[in-house]
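Hi P.,

Sorry for the delay on this. The queue was packed all week, but I finally got your sequence through. Input first:
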Amino acid sequence: MGHAISSLAVALGCVFFLGGFAWGAYVYQPYTVPTDSMAPTVGAGERVLAQRIGGEDVRRGDVVVFEDPGWGDLPMLKRVVAVGGDRVECCDDQGRLSVNGRALDEPYVSGRGPASPVEFTARVPRDGLFLLGDKRDSSLDSREHLDDAHQGSVGRDTVRARVDATVWPFGSAGAVVRPEGFREMPGGVSRPGPWNAVLWTCGAGAALILAGAVYGPFARRGGRRGSP
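Then the structure:
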């Protein structure tokens, strides 16, 4: 009986663990952050998981992975601060970024200075996204492309994924929080992906495998002791 319970626990554990792993691999794409332009949210060299989504699912405040030939040959990570039809400008008399006249508090921005060391105003075209790094004093982002035809915006179709969590190094691992400042704006903020569910599924599977592997020898030993 003990052997059957042990085998069942290991089998179920394998199902949960492999199923969770496959689920995560289907939903998420891992990326290594190449620069510190998104510090302190994610730093250079950190490993993140980005949920595969289409551009139509992007909301203000999302940290996205995108590819635009006009910005370079490699995928880039930036934060969406404005979407199609928005007017974005910086800075007000308190040094804050404004979207459609609404000033934003941005606790994720690195440093204590203004939201941007360079003042700017831009109108985001339809199906466009205006992107800024969280380390505003050194990030190369939409501000570097204000003279382009789309005033620094990229198309929604350039988005490949949305960053949901940091997974390496372990000391900085955790979910990327959706900014409260954008919550009351039209469209609100995006919902977190299934990161926690994937993690718990894999964890439950690993726990069942371990419990079954440990319980089996004890059950067999107990059976031998009880035999005549």
